[in-house]
Amino acid sequence: MKKLATALLTSAIALGTFSSAQAGEIAVIVKTVNSTFWQNVQKGADAAMEDVSEHTMTFQGPASESAIADQVNMVENAVNRGVAGIVLAPSDPDALVPAVKKAWENRIPVVIIDSMLAEGAEQYYQSFLSTDNKKAGELAAQALIEKVGTEGKIAIMSYVAGAGSEIGRVGGFTDYIKANSKLEIVGPYYSQSQMATALNQTTDVLAANSDLKGMFGANEPTAIGMGRALKQSGKAGQVVAFGFDGNQDLQEFVKDGTLAGIAVQGSFQMGELGIDTVTKLINKEKVEKFVDTGVVIVTKDNIDKPEAKNVLY
């Protein structure tokens, strides 16, 4: 609690040092533009910008989530352009810290979304908007245990090792499985957020583990590749699989039984609240240091209900 209070105080002090609000560019920089998850974040940001007449918004991201150096350059370029504020989904918790520090030194407010930066970087940004990834991973693990029981073998299909969201999400999943079952875990395997890589990895895991009872695909492209591999191998519905995120492909996998369920984040909310929060900071208004944007476990039973429709995209 003392640490949080210190972070909040630091944030308040930093906020007070920003220059007077003036018309300018809000730079939204995400992990990649080639994913419907991040495209849905953009829809949320666009919606919020309808109420922001005094600023313009740019939206960009690298070609892939693993192109970390490209994302660092985008943040540095935004700082060099003298933008009014930055909303950033960092692809790497360490590599983005110097660029965010540079923004802070130039009195540019930064709102972090989706994935946290390394410990110690809290002073350089003013708010963090994210799914509680540890909690989300625990919910997925709980749902899987309810379907497969507490004994047997399961696999974890992950994405980018060391990404802030991956640490929390896969860590939460793994810890819950170990604490509440005797399930043996195979993996994790890292797809680098490439669907084709996840498909090939899942195909190999299924071939090497004929007794596999369950799987967890920890982000959108990984879960899509996992689902396609399950269908191609004839294991769809036989191996209990849960994915993460909620685009059209994953929704169809839930409807046809390929996936038992998907844990879906409020991606639209991340974009919308990201713009709202950075606008408040530009206007020297106080903001919360952390905002949980939520997660919903979507299954065939609730996919057509409001709780699911509010987060699916």
UniProtKB/TrEMBL annotation:
Keywords: Signal. It holds the Pfam family Peripla_BP_4. GO terms for cellular component: cell envelope. SUPFAM superfamilies: Periplasmic binding protein-like I. It is found in: Cell envelope. One of its GO terms (molecular function) is carbohydrate binding. The keyword Signal applies. Gene3D superfamilies: 3.40.50.2300. It comes from the Bacteria. Residues 1-23 form the signal peptide. Residues 26-286 form the Periplasmic binding protein domain. Belongs to the bacterial solute-binding protein 2 family. This is LacI family transcriptional regulator. The lineage of its organism: Bacteria, Pseudomonadati, Pseudomonadota, Alphaproteobacteria, Hyphomicrobiales.
